[in-house]
Amino acid sequence: MILLLVLGVQQRGVAKEPARGIAFGMFRVLPSVKLQTRWEDNVDKTMTGRRADQALLISPTVKFMTRWRNSAFTIDLGSSHARHRETGADNDYDDQSLTLALNLSPKRTLTSNWTYGFKTKHDDKSEVNSGAYSQQSLGGTTTLALTRLETVFGYDYATRRSTRAANRSVDPTRHAVLLGLRFQPAAKTSLFTSLGWAAAHHDDSDRDNGDRKLDVEWSWQATAKTGGRVGMGWIWRDYASAADTAATTLKALIDWRPRRETTVTLTAGRSLEDGGVTDRYFMSNTGGVGLNHRLTQAVALKGNAGIARDRYATAQRDRKWTMDVGFGYVFPRWVILDAQLGHEVKRSTAAGAGYDSNSVMLSLSGGL
After folding, report:
1. What is the pLDDT of residues 153-212, one digit of tens each?
2. What is the torsional sign of CA 103, 12, 368, 97?
3. C-alpha span between 141 and 136 (Å, rounded)
4. May I ask the CATH architecture of the domain 22-367?
5. 3-state helix, strand, coil in the chain (%, to 5)
6. Of 6, 80, 126, 230, which is most buried with the most CB atoms under 10 A?
7. What ranges do the domains of the chain cover?
8. HSE-up of residue 126 (Cα within 13 Å, Cβ side)
9. Whole-prediction pTM value?
10. What's the sign of the alpha-carbon dihedral 122, 35, 19, 257?
11. Residue 38: CB partners within 8 Å, gap ≥ 6?
């Protein structure tokens, strides 16, 4: 399959005065809001019985930041609300999120970054038995730096609870531990090797599993024109009462800047994922290409195209293509106007799991 290159919005390459926030006691407060209108010709992501609809979305956020000595504390509050003109009962949603982040650096050689999160969200309509869910997470890393070597310890916890009763038996509660070593042979080059262990528990005990992982990642910033990271790993998954599995994983992200105004990004990945209500697991193979081009200090274009191929433990096979096109304009002070056309295609060996959809989006975002 040849990936089609299209144009879309770029924000990171546009000169934009950063939001400064508002002083509030010991905190600096940064409020922001995003208004979006979106039209889609297949809002239910189905092969038959297509319904077109227009939605209005509003996403306000507020961030509280404070610093003392070499440490920082951040509170992020966010929400996203969608209202549809024709299919509101089936597609309206109200998502909320809370994130607490603590960054400690008691010594130059010792840093520790930890985050707690709570969110109520909804699955994408393309997911099987999609619905709303809540999720809590806690995780972080502690790093000890010794000249060109860094020792990294990481821990992650996450638990999910679906509102749809049929999905609760496969909702995971997951604990993961990581021990890594990063070597920096040069200022802009590093090699990171890590060992990981994880355990996932479900109401359906047949889904319970444990992972052992070995990962190696090489990152570089060779010149002003090229940079990225490439990694390879191995994972062994043991199930409580089902056949075990093992896989080789891959990941790559490479940026190429042939000109100051242009960035080409290539991505690729291969990973072992939880199968949700469909199956115990699936192997996901992904690839993508992006083009960012800045026309002026205020106007920019971006192109994205991607493909994903999923192979489940049983016979199901899925393929998905995504593309988008648009433009963006940055106003002098903290406001961005975006417009985008999107196209998605999914094909599956499972009956009724495929779809195709087209969308048009216009958004206005800004903050203080």
Report:
1. 999 999 999 998 888 888 999 999 999 999 998 888 999 999 999 999 998 888 899 999
2. negative
3. 18
4. Beta Barrel (2.40)
5. 5, 70, 25
6. 6
7. 22-367
8. 15
9. 0.87
10. positive
11. 54, 55, 57, 359, 360, 361, 362
